[in-house]
Design a protein that fits this description.
The chain is built from 20 helices and five strands. The protein has about 475 residues and is mainly alpha-helical. The protein folds into three domains: about 120 residues, HUPs (Rossmann fold, 3-Layer(aba) Sandwich); about 110 residues, Serine Threonine Protein Phosphatase 5, Tetratricopeptide repeat (Alpha Horseshoe); about 180 residues, DNA Cyclobutane Dipyrimidine Photolyase, subunit A, domain 3, CATH 1.10.579.10. It has a five-stranded parallel β-sheet with strand order 3-2-1-4-5, sandwiched between helices. Strand 4, helix 5 and strand 5 form a beta-alpha-beta unit. Helix 4 crosses helix 5 and helix 13 crosses helix 14. The two termini are about 40 Å apart. It binds flavin-adenine dinucleotide.
Length: about 475
Amino acid sequence: MAGGDAQHDDGRGTGPIVIWFRRDLRLHDHPALTAALAAGRLVAPLFVFDEALLRGRWPAPNRVWFMRESVRALGEGLRERGGGLAIRVGQPEVVVAEFAAEVGASTVYVTRDYAPYARGRDRRVAAALAGRGIGFAAKRGLLVHEPEGIVSAEGQGYTVFSPYRRCWELRRPRAVLPAPGTIPTPPRLRVGTPPALDALGPTAPTAREIPEPGEAAARSRLDAWVADGLADYDEARDQLADDGTSRLSQDLHWGLLSPVEVLARAGGGGAGRATFRSELCWRDFYTQILFHHPRVTREPFNAAYARLDWRNDPDHLTAWREGRTGYPIVDAAMRQMVTLGWMHNRARMITASFLTKHLLTHYAVGEEHFMAHLTDGDLAANNGGWQWAASVGTDAQPYFRIFNPTLQGQRHDPAGDYVRRWLPELARVPTRYIHEPWTMPEEVQREVGCVIGADYPAPIVEHAEARRLALDVFKRAADVGRE
Ligand SMILES: Cc1cc2nc3c(=O)[nH]c(=O)nc-3n(C[C@H](O)[C@H](O)[C@H](O)COP(=O)(O)OP(=O)(O)OC[C@H]3O[C@@H](n4cnc5c(N)ncnc54)[C@H](O)[C@@H]3O)c2cc1C
């Protein structure tokens, strides 16, 4: 495989092959596992709870909990097939090398990862293994197409989505691989159980309703989605109250499902299927942006906006975080995320636009807040989404297009059901006022039990004024950036 990320040493020797699971917590369509079995070797499955990830830059109880439970489910799946999952805690360059030596492995196989931390980690692990004469090989499995496979005529990675997608669609995905029936493991493999949550950092997930972890649950979600939701996806996906999207993002993030298999299941004609495939392409797109331009984790892709005059008002930030901005569509979305560990895509766009444009708060602050709550929190997709919404990214919406939260609410939640679901204090507000409750006459406010300023806040900024200020600030940054 191309990439030059880590030492590649494809299966030399005759000893067992370690399959080190990371964001590929599945047995179906797992190229590394299939390759190890095809080589006719014993397989030693391993998962490492890596403290740098658990306590590092993006710690998140919901994600840690979902991961830990999915690891547990993977262990059960492996046991049913004759093997088991060895579990270790610590620095991968130490524990992977120790484990590989312990089972007498000749090679370690992984599913290739593209994030900056993962690439550095894999280089260190490959070097530690090489020091013991053990090989290391990274197989595909996290994306539909490898970043090196989708490049322009000049051999460059794309930074604009449409040409990227055209090229992506022309490439044939690899075949979907079946789950192995049995997995022969070394006789003395010491398996384990995932450590307690508090040993991993968080003591409990913060969201109340996280989807069931594990590959089997994810596969049931995929089956239900293909049977019931997919065909109407193009129409339903932007209606906030409809639950018209797949809700597979945590499964794709943790690799409970392979994107190649999800794509294959979404094959065929119809606008719903085509639109859904295009969303899977966005996932590959942002991952290859992070791969080719790792600097996006520290700065805007578009250097013109590196010195934007953000206001960063702490009171505004608190109101946004707590869902108290006075704009119902924004507040409902923020509360949805805290409750579910998930937010609808349209709502992510609206809330990110509001924070960066209306409140002129640096996008990285919002990016971090999302990462603290989302079970699907994904460095590439989240950073890409935030930079897009803030108009500072690769393929960003132009800064002069600023979402009007009232109109967005009226368009994407016309009956106000989404707002009422997440903001019970607005439950009895008539639909004509639901997205601008501050326009309710005072007697209506009293009648429906929603007095503005007492039961629900007045808008913390006025839309037209905030828009003018944002246009001014962004224009100045763009002008300076051009000089
Ligand atoms: C500010 C912002 C932050 C975001 N943060 C994340 C994140 O941390 N993790 C994440 O997975 N997605 C993120 N997204 C993308 C998108 O909002 C979620 O993937 C989607 O809401 C997940 O719900 P779903 O599975 O029902 O999506 P569906 O609409 O059913 O889409 C199917 C799959 O396609 C992928 N996908 C869809 N849209 C995008 C996109 N714009 N970029 C990349 N992949 C996409 C996801 O894997 C998703 O599960 C973000 C978007 C924005 C605007």
